[in-house]
Here is the input.
Amino acid sequence: MTPHSSLDHSTTISRELVHRASIAEVFLTGHCEESDGSFTVAGQLPRTHSYYNDHTTSPAQYDPLLVLEVFRQTCILFSHKALGAPMDSAFIFDKGSVQITDCDALRMGAEPAEVIVHLTVTDRHFRGKNLAGCAIEASMTIDGRVCARTSLAWRWMRQKMWSTLRRRTRSSLDLTPRAHLTGTRLPAYAVGRHSPQNVVLVDADITDRGLISKVTVDRSHPGLFDHPLDHISGALQFEALRQTALYAASELLGLDPRFLALTDFDTEFTNVGEFELPTDCHAVTAGVEGDTACFELSMRQEGTEIASSRMRLSRSRQTPASLPDGMSELVAAH
Here is the structure.
């Protein structure tokens, strides 16, 4: 039992409350609203997820994008339970940042990690007189240790309104069929993955300003598309941005992506990603200091930016002496 008497980690909450189709994609187990208006959530992090646990970093730790997903589910649950968002709402996340504050706390142990998320509201968005959006700050703890912090802003609207807005937006675009994206996916190790099925980049080119990757959109991927959508999922966009940063670290800086982890990111979504349009990620090195490398990233569809992000990658805590033969020099190159 957690310090909050109404919280435990024995079973997941209803999948409808976090807009998931698969029960296995629900990571929250309980919630309570505090007397000061803050909101607390309990959750559990999986150790055998085919997407979130498919990384080459050692020692194994929970994925920062899994941490983000727990924060995202917390926001949706909070919207329904505390803010009165209708159950048929479509949620639009505008921007968000995550800072991993304790990498050691995210190391996988002998049992799945039980987490507590504490959320406070920093701003509210109204559509007329109706509350229709929110901005929050939240922290995640494991065994009493704060492992991550986030700031997120999102809006919601009834599904009928969203569908009308989408039809209007799409009617203003040229969505005639483009040439099918050809080529092979990048090698899994080149983006810090074990499984080729979790690679979302097809080809990448080095330019005089940085690196440009091509994004492949696989709508059958169960981790990136839990249910059918009318747009490119935020989960895929975050993964494409991260993989582009990892590949840029290798190609531009000579760092081995197998020993790099995402530790800090600040992302803004500016337009909806359309399935019919080719999607590219542009990466520019923003700084290298000690064990970290920073990149400015932009995701675009035929020149129109749909998302931008600043991401920091940090070297894993595995010591050079324990790396495979020949890897110590690569990892220590910068």
Q: What stands out?
A: The domain at 176-334 is CATH 3.10.129.10 (Thiol Ester Dehydrase; Chain A).
